[in-house]
């Protein structure tokens, strides 16, 4: 059988041509990177968990009317998605000070912010994803003001919904990163949520103990990384049916 054509390989995922035009297969790897690729490692089972967690969260978001690129999960490590034109921005939402915001502004980690804050970063590895303002975004044409209105409105709704969903299972949604894409349907363009929503791009703290249940365990060498991702899946009630049988992973679909 012919090997599927690889369209793109990123740090944590690979995209393959999908079965029909306008679709892609998104494959979740166990590879983890931090500090823009300077720190590398493998979190065994991460791909399986992120595939499942992102499926669950995207479907929940779709139920409340957030358009996403997600179509369906195909197997332990792969999901079918709509092909979109990725807007080259990382949209970060913060509810509690942590990470780069805490460092940059000297606010102690864990401080509840007066209101949710949205930040934009230009997706460019060579430049280390610099923070940019809406002025840069519209001046350089990465997105127009109308796109930005849609992105902000969707982002605020996603933050409200996910904050409540996680709170219900004893997890504080501290901050997270989203990516959006343009989806064309019969001359009409819609902005949809793309990429993934998982402990790789969210900060998730236990509401009682503030224990970190996300990629900061890898970034900061805190240990028990895979266990933390599993705990998130358990609390959401979605540990993969077969457990983590597929730990050795990739039966790449040919
Ligand atoms: N984030 C991400 N990818 C990035 C940078 C940040 O998913 O390339 C997420 C990160 O997991 C956190 C939020 O965005 O939930 C804010 O990250 P921050 O700016 O504090 O950067 P960091 O401290 O992770 O370098």
Note the topology.
Layout: E1 6-9, E2 13-17, E3 23-28, E4 31-34, E5 39-42, H1 46-63, E6 70-73, E7 78-82, E8 85-86, E9 89-96, H2 99-105, E10 112-122, E11 131-132, H3 134-139, H4 145-167, E12 171-185, E13 188-194, E14 202-206, H5 216-219, H6 225-236
Antiparallel strand pairs: 1-2, 2-3, 3-7, 4-5, 6-7, 8-12, 9-10, 9-12, 10-11, 12-13, 12-14
Helix pairs in contact: 1-6
Bound molecules: uridine-5'-diphosphate.
Folded structure, characterized:
The protein is α+β, with helices and mostly antiparallel strands and 254 residues long. It has two domains: 6-84 and 225-236, Phosphorylase Kinase, domain 1 (2-Layer Sandwich), CATH 3.30.200.20; 87-206, ATP-grasp fold, B domain (D-amino Acid Aminotransferase, Chain A, domain 1, 2-Layer Sandwich), CATH 3.30.470. Helix content is 28%, strand content 32%. α1 (46-63) packs parallel to α6 (225-236). The radius of gyration is 18 Å and the shape is globular. Bound molecules: uridine-5'-diphosphate. Uridine-5'-diphosphate (UDP) is lined by residues 90, 92, 98-101, 129, 175-177, 201-203, 215.
What class do helices, strands and sheet pairing give?
alpha+beta
Bound molecules: uridine-5'-diphosphate
Flag low-confidence runs. Answer: 250-254
- For the termini, the CA-CA separation is 7 Å
Instruction: Report the sheet with the most strands, covering strand number, pairing sense and barrel closure.
Output: 7 strands, antiparallel
Any idea how many domains?
A: 2
How many β-strand stretches? Answer: 14
- Which band does the percent of strand residues land in? 25-35%
CATH topology of the largest domain, what is it called?
A: D-amino Acid Aminotransferase, Chain A, domain 1
Shape: globular
CATH first level of the largest domain? Alpha Beta
Tell me the name of the CATH homologous superfamily of the largest domain.
ATP-grasp fold, B domain
Give the SSE string. Answer: EEEEEHEEEEHEEHHEEEHH
What is the gyration radius calculated from CA atoms? 18 Å
State the helical fraction: 25-40%
Q: If classified by CATH, what would the architecture of the largest domain be?
A: 2-Layer Sandwich
């Amino acid at each position: 059988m012919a090997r599927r054509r690889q369209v793109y390989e990123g740090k944590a995922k690979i995209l393959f041509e999908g079965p029909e035009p306008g679709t892609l297969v998104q494959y979740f790897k166990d590879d983890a990177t931090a500090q823009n690729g300077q720190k590398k490692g493998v979190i065994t089972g991460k791909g399986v968990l992120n595939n499942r967690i992102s499926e669950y969260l995207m479907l929940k978001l779709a139920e409340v009317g957030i358009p996403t690129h997600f179509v369906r999960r195909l197997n332990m490590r792969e999901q079918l998605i709509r092909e979109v034109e990725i807007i080259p921005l990382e949209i970060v939402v913060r509810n509690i000070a942590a990470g780069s915001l805490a460092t940059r502004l000297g606010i102690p980690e864990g401080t509840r912010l007066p209101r949710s804050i949205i930040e934009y970063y230009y997706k460019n590895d060579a430049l280390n994803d610099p923070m940019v303002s809406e002025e840069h975004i519209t001046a350089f044409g990465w997105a127009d003001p109308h796109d930005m209105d849609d992105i902000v409105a969707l982002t605020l709704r996603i933050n409200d919904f996910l904050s409540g969903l996680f709170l219900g299972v004893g997890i504080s949604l501290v901050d997270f990163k989203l990516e959006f894409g343009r989806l064309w349907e019969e001359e009409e363009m819609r902005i949809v949520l793309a990429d993934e929503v998982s402990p790789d791009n969210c900060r998730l703290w236990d509401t009682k103990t503030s224990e970190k249940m996300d990629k900061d365990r890898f970034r900061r060498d805190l240990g028990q990384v895979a266990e933390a991702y599993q705990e998130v899946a358990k609390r959401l009630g979605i540990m993969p049916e077969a457990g983590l049988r597929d730990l050795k992973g990739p039966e790449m679909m040919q």
